[in-house]
Amino acid sequence: MNDLAPLRILLCNPRGFCAGVVRAIDVVEQALKLHGAPVYVRHEIVHNRYVVDSLKAKGAIFVDELDEIPDTTAPVIFSAHGTPKSVPEAAGKRNLFAIDATCPLVTKVHREATTHYKRGRLVLLIGHAGHPEVVGTMGQLPDGAVQLVETVEDVMNFARPEGRELAYATQTTLSVDDTRDMITALTTRFPDIIPPHREDICYATTNRQDAVRKIAPMVEALLVVGAPNSSNSLRLREVAERYGCKVAVLIERASDIDWSLFGSISTLGLTAGASAPEVLVDEIIDAFAARYQVSVETVTTAEESMFFPLPRELRDQADGLTPPPPVG
């Protein structure tokens, strides 16, 4: 007889890897396959320790900056978050074999910011200071060409240079709700501000937040699988709290679970940030199944089929690459 208390797990779909993360990981793995170890990677290819450690075990060497890389013919890969223009320029001066794994949706933001700059506009970037994506976007243009705004207060305090046309862009992994408030403040203060051609917050960020928004009022607690330095994962926890979940926790692995938070619950929400692999979700379900009589119900709010091809430097040599199956 099973004396374990019943626990209904509502599993968000979509969750976990997005197309940009799949592509970035494939870039490293394909480079290792074609060129052998080592392969150098500037910064974490994606914000997930499990992924990074798995790639290290296969021969990837992660560095903070290019000056840590010796003179080499081995591939040097730039992370999915994007880099300032100075980084590929420095790699070119050293004749390094550079491969850019920047997510194409981040590259879109770079191109739009560059277009605004060429047309004489000051770009207001909605984002979080110090995040690699923000550093990379601001680094596409000369100092002063992009002004970072993090809060509505920043928008209200911004002094528009006289006669200067304005445009705005956003980090791709922000809270949809918070960003909407920021855009409302911008367009109210500056009705003539130029918006992005298409929304900058990426489809994966939006879809994962929509799924959490749906189940947050239905569960007593919600776990987000992701890294503490992952912007999209942090936003999922915030969305859960905003939409009525009293206990919303971000963890990296099952070993991080604080069981004191979940003693008598009967419903649990579970999702994963866009850089968290499905194996970690399964690990957490197994951990709960050892303590509860678990039933798992998938709650689907969108279907994803996005796929990004490898960079040109690897594409011609890759064979048999097919889009990943949808999660869920």
Give a brief description:
By secondary structure, the protein is of the alpha/beta class.
Description:
With 328 residues, the protein is α/β, with parallel strands linked by helices. 36% of the residues lie in helices and 19% in strands. The protein has eleven helices and twelve strands. It has helices spanning 19-35, 49-58, 86-93, 104-118, 132-138, 152-157, 176-189, 203-215, 231-242, 278-289, 312-315; strands at 6-13, 39-42, 60-63, 75-78, 97-100, 122-126, 146-149, 166-170, 221-225, 247-251, 267-272, 293-300. Strands 10-9-11-1-12 form a five-stranded parallel β-sheet, with helices on both faces. The longest helix has 17 residues, at 19-35.
Q: How does the major sheet shape up?
A: 5 strands, parallel
Give the DSSP E fraction (strand runs of 2 or more residues). 15-25%
* Overall average pLDDT: 94
The tally of strands reads 12
How far apart, in Å, are the first and last alpha carbons? 31 Å
Number of helices: 11
The appropriate CATH architecture of the largest domain is: 3-Layer(aba) Sandwich
CATH superfamily of the largest domain: 4-hydroxy-3-methylbut-2-enyl diphosphate reductase, catalytic domain
